[in-house]
Amino acid sequence: MKTIDVCLTPDLLHLHTDSLENSIVVVADVFRATSCMVTAFAHGVNSITPVATIEECSQLQSRGYLAAAERNAQKVEGFDLDNSPFSYMDERLIGANIAMTTTNGTYAITRSRNAVKVLVGSFLNLEAVVRFLQGERYDVLILCAGWKGRVNLEDTLFAGALIERLKDEYMIPEDSGLMAWRLYAQAKNDLPAYLAPSSHVRRLHRLSIHKDIIYCLQHDLYDVIPVLRGSALVSMEV
């Protein structure tokens, strides 16, 4: 039977290197990188090139890419876009090629390149990811972007939500998956309230970023899945 596992932070990814080449990786950075990416493709962006560093993003900007750079939940000076999903609803971005670096999400994606496929997941495209994985024969590893190497609650809850919808088709071999699933079972009836005391929600509130939180916790808004092709993400509709 296929398995579904959870890596709670990229700093633990070395424990999964043996299985990575036989797995589909779903990267989740709910607040807010992967939610931005899903939103961007749903609104017509052509591609997003995720890079780990500000320097790489700046180099792509000099080559004509629109550039999005975020560190510590704030836009980096000199770049075109920030890390709010609402910034990617602009019709002027239709057909655009974007370079993006974020504190956690793009780093997690670049660490996953050896996988069979790398998908971008969020609550916004949860059901689309589920439908795609139901037709695949590979194991699944959900990689939570976390926060600077630490585990965070929102990405773990996304992992639990994905497991809940796939539990009849995938075996859950490790406690990280079981933990994520059980946490989501506790939280799913009111995710905003459950996450209210979490570190990243408090961080966003200190920066007066409120509406992004509620938006990113909505389920199944979009039928798009960003998938890594070479060095760039493109949209795969399901």
TrEMBL record:
EC top class, as a word: hydrolase
SUPFAM superfamilies, alphabetized: ComB-like (SSF142823)
Record EC number: 3.1.3.71
Reported cofactor(s): Mg(2+)
Cited InterPro entries: ComB-like, ComB-like_sf
A GO term for molecular function: 2-phosphosulfolactate phosphatase activity
Keyword annotations from UniProtKB, A to Z: Hydrolase, Magnesium
Catalytic activity as recorded in UniProt: (2R)-O-phospho-3-sulfolactate + H2O = (2R)-3-sulfolactate + phosphate
Protein's name in the database: Probable 2-phosphosulfolactate phosphatase
Organism of this sequence: Larkinella rosea
